Amino acid sequence: MSSEGPNKLSRFGPYRHALKAISTRTGAPLPSLVLSFAVLHELTAIVPLVGVFYGARTLGIGERIVTAITEDDPNSALTKHSWIRENSKKWINEGEDWAGSVGRKYGFFGLDKGQSAGGDVDGKRHHHVLAGDVANAVCAYALTKVCLAMT
Question: Which among 59, 54, 56, 86 has a CA at the least distance from the CA of 70?
Answer without folding.
Answer: 86
